[in-house]
Write a structure and sequence with these properties.
Layout (H helix, E strand, L loop, with lengths): L2 E6 L9 H7 L4 E8 L1 H6 L4 H19 L6 E4 L2 H12 L3 E5 L4 H16 L3 E5 L22 H10 L41 H14 L4 H4 L12 H5 L5 H11 L2 H22 L19 H12 L5 H13 L4 H14 L4 H11 L5 H12 L13 H8 L4 H6 L19 H5 L10 H11 L4
Parallel strand pairs: 1-2, 1-4, 2-3, 4-5
Helix pairs in contact: 4-5, 6-11, 10-11, 11-16, 13-14, 14-16, 15-16
The protein binds flavin-adenine dinucleotide (FAD).
The site of flavin-adenine dinucleotide has 27 residues, from α9, α11, α14 and α16.
Amino acid sequence: MNVSVVLFTSDLRVHDHPPLRAALGRGNEVVPLFVRDPAVARAGHPAPNRDAFLADCLIALDAGLRERGGRLVVRSGDPVDEVCAVVKEADADDVHMAAGCSGFARRREDRLRRALEADGRRLYVHDAVVTALPTGAVTPDGSDHYAVFTPYFRRWSRERLREPLAAPRVVRTPGKVRSEDLPARADVPSVSEGLAAGGEKEGRGLLTAWLARGADSYEEGHDDLAGDATSHLSPYLHFGAVSAAEVVHRARSRGGAGAEAFVRQLCWRDFHHQVLAARPDAAAGDYRTRHDRWRRGKEADADLRAWREGRTGYPVVDAAMRQLAHEGWMHNRGRLLTASFLTKTLYIDWREGARHFMELLVDGDLANNQLNWQWMAGTGTDSRPNRVLNPVIQGKRYDPDGAYVRRWVPELAGLEGPAVHEPWKLTGLDRARYDYPDPVVELADGLARFRHARGRD
Ligand SMILES: Cc1cc2nc3c(=O)[nH]c(=O)nc-3n(C[C@H](O)[C@H](O)[C@H](O)COP(=O)(O)OP(=O)(O)OC[C@H]3O[C@@H](n4cnc5c(N)ncnc54)[C@H](O)[C@@H]3O)c2cc1C
């Protein structure tokens, strides 16, 4: 009997899994493998929320495989060395994996291909496992990627996505391959108390419930901070516990304006992935340089600290930053306005903000995070790179009653209605009752500084 290895990376599921289905195709035995790569931990910053979520996903993947007669093999080390060692132990013929879009993932694929070929084995890399449409499947004339979302969306919407695959009924894993123990969830504590539970079952349950009860009101409700009416699928999509292609198919079958608006948002995910695939250096460098001379030094450091800790004196900014600390997740509107505040009002380098988000976000994703940060900082694909979001206007528009601020900034919980967005308007004793910081900067001063720096005054 032939044996194949399936290397799982950002695709921790058994449903709609092209590499697994291809590997099983001819009645093969399959070694489902996950390699913990210490280089990932060393290269990045600590991400305990994602580590905890990942532990859930691995436990769930193992359970999904065991239900079908298989099991997950977990190893630690360099992925190329570990895959080659497993290939030898299992006497496997080939290896299947999902295509990645980051520079890191591409280099890993290349190294693995070379190592396997040197040993007479093959690597099969499958597209449209992590994204709904393969990155690079559609390109505009004269470029290797779309730099503007709307034409990309138009084109993406016309493409036929592959049909989702059912989970295999049986997975046979050879017994002779050594595996480390799965991480015990209790040994991987998250830093955020309100972290969601990970795993394919959770993700699929959430998707079904969301399509049944949430999607219809998505179009009107997705920007309402207090209503919290978005899907919360992002961490499951990031770890591939649910498949992007399947989510799009199921949302389209659901139909309606809400589901359509939701699919458009999912397209943003593919959009950023195709940008990163074409420009891997945009993970750290400006996609389009504006020759920014970001603020540095003591004062900027103090402002950055206030922003991280949710004490800028702008209630909606602070509420969103505290939601991030507590849940390891932040509402998209919160991400937009906190990123604008950091990069424009405080004129601090987007990389500082992106790093802090990557440390805490359970859905922290190189393509989505770095390129959304660049979009907000005006160094990315935004066609209006100098737009600045005013946190008071944003607060009143997207949290009109102030409920979101009161939820996350308890110091201000006694303030009723939209007054909570402008606590500095309180005077005398009223003001003294609230132990809440003064604004780190006047908005007009922040705006003038930004415009001056960008040469627009
Ligand atoms: C500064 C900044 C940083 C961000 N960092 C990340 C990140 O690290 N990881 C991440 O998944 N998303 C990131 N986003 C995008 C977006 O905020 C989240 O995907 C969304 O808030 C997740 O919540 P949800 O699943 O309820 O989204 P929904 O509104 O239910 O949307 C469904 C799915 O569409 C995708 N999506 C929605 N909006 C975007 C977007 N603007 N860009 C890319 N994909 C999108 C996500 O996969 C999301 O799960 C960031 C946005 C900004 C402005």
